[in-house]
UniProtKB/TrEMBL annotation:
Domain Transcription regulator AsnC/Lrp ligand binding: 25-82
GO CC, any one term: cytosol
GO biological process: response to amino acid
Protein name, per record: Leucine-responsive regulatory protein
SUPFAM superfamilies, alphabetized: Dimeric alpha+beta barrel
GO MF annotation list: sequence-specific DNA binding
InterPro entries cross-referenced by the UniProt entry: Dimeric_a/b-barrel, Tscrpt_reg_AsnC/Lrp_C
Length: 105
């Protein structure tokens, strides 16, 4: 594998695996200490509903792309995973209505 290739992925139809709702979640962290940011990244990456984690610049700190079965699962995820173990100052979700992908060969 070339050094510039980090890996390969498969695009899975989320609705066919029981997680039809895609939500892009903007997370703002209260305290941006580097050690705590690393803990947050690891917590997000290990969550099964979280498909992608981006540490970003701008008005918020992380952009998460998640897939859930329903809004009840999203609510539980925010209460039990995203807000723990420490406080997040804000959380904002945008629900994806449709997505298109382009195959690159």
């Amino acid at each position: 594998m070339q050094e510039w290739i980090k890996g390969s992925v498969s695009l899975v139809d989320a609705s066919k695996v029981g997680r039809p709702i895609t939500i892009m979640v903007q997370v703002t962290i209260e305290n941006e200490r580097l050690d705590l940011l690393e803990e947050d990244k690891q917590r997000f990456v290990t969550c099964p509903q979280v498909q992608q984690v981006y540490y970003v610049t701008g008005d918020f700190d992380f952009l998460l792309v998640i897939n859930v079965r329903d809004m009840a699962e999203y609510e539980a995820l925010t209460r039990e995973t995203l807000f723990l173990p420490r406080e997040i100052s804000s959380l904002s979700g945008t629900i994806g209505v449709d997505a298109k992908w382009r195959s690159r060969k």
